[in-house]
Amino acid sequence: MTHGDSMTQRFAPAALLAAAVLAAPAASAEAVKYRIDPSHTVVLATWNHFGYSNPSANFGGVSGTIVYDAEAPENSSVEVVLPMSGLDSFVPKLDEHLRSPDFFDAEKYPQATFRSTAVKALGDGRFQVEGVLDLHGVQKPVVLDAKLNKAAPHPMSKKPVVGFDATATLKRSDFGIDRYVPMVGDEISLRITTEAGAEAATE
Question: What's the whole-model pTM score?
């Protein structure tokens, strides 16, 4: 065995270890696609009613996906579908009115969608999510202020799960839903909480 062969054998394990260490961050940075769990997702809209109260309605039956890259949040994305059939104001008569042409016109526009266009990390698990809301046949930009609650294997399913909360404010008149403005508030506050289970890693 030559001196060169001895040196090669001596440093080969170290070189392999270094290569593995350098490769590890790239693997951990891989974005993962999560499917939203509608049974643990609430999209709550709140508005002012003639100055007397602040009613709310939940948009249930939410579906969609979250692509989350913990190492490079700018590679993350969100796509959500909200069926108008899932709207629940906790008052059946109001549900009927909200689905009527006076408001959401659910027969003509049976669903709303939100698709992100950019995600910016703000630190401490907080993110600014810019996107486009398609509601009532109108597309407008909306910004979500989001917070990561937890990203870890679920204690029951053992599969990776992420949970987020988010808030946003929009004007319903921007989407052509302006009945009774300003007596019934134009400004709508959204509060969102969601869980999503891992589907597959992205390419």
Answer: 0.82
